[in-house]
Amino acid sequence: MIIEDTKFGYTVKNCNYSEIDAKRIKQLIGDGRFVVIKNERPVDSNLLVDFYSSIGDVVKQNPDKVSACVEGSDGYLVKAGKGKLFSGKEDGELEWHCAGMNRSQGDDIVAMYMAISTTEGGNTYFSDSQTAFRDLDDDTKKMCQGIDAKYLTYTLDENLASELYKNIFNDAQTMMEFRDIDGNASYETQVKRKPLVTTHPISGASGLYFPWSVIRGFTGLPPQEQKELYRKLKKHTMDEKYVYEHKWDPYDIVLSDQHHSLHRRDAYDGYRELWRAGIVLKDQKSSIEEWSCESNVPETA
After folding, report:
1. 2-290 domain in CATH 3.10.290.10?
2. In principle, which of 73, 132, 250, 260 could form an S-S bond with 207, CB 3.0–4.6 Å?
3. Strand, helix or coil at 84?
């Protein structure tokens, strides 16, 4: 296996998808925010699932209910893109997000495999809020530590055509059927607060857990300071220094950290087929009791 540094991540060639390779890939994800695995030929869906399973527990959807599941993958691989899960806007653009967002539990790693690529657009971007946290001035670091981010939550009664839902689910039925690894519907595991600074489960490094699109303030700060911190962190983490742009080749696999990283997708033309899998690290499953579920919706930051 050949490993090359790629900005704040890694590119891997000659991966044979063994358990030994899986352990090394897992460590690389802890050290960086993404790993790109290059392939010259298609990778079988069963081999993908087996490989992901060597990294952690793979999240399973019900293929009878979620129509975007990859045939033959038993619900472990789902198709992402226009008219499917993670459909994004009409042109395929998908805004910055991560798997956990405002939920008590989310995937630790998202694995993406490009089964059929398009020649126009569809580049995917990954951010590095671990290095961004390290580079903050000491006063801002101290301010961030020990406070919680306040999250926007939603109910089934709200308009499902809003940006909050359309970035992820194509329709209300799919939203209600999509499950976390614990078997709960994703929308049922929402929380009001999560720590702003977290420890990475693989590397033990500190970083920002900052999915800014659903954050509406911070605990323990006056309203004006909440707004100032929000704007500062958003500008800082989205700096070019902390963003990597990936242009897909056929059969690429990208494994993306979901703790200290966000990702987004450009608009694209034509048909493409990307297979997504969620991976939860063994012994890392969170319980909803770990997070605050207060009833008051926080003020927009």
Report:
1. no
2. 260
3. coil
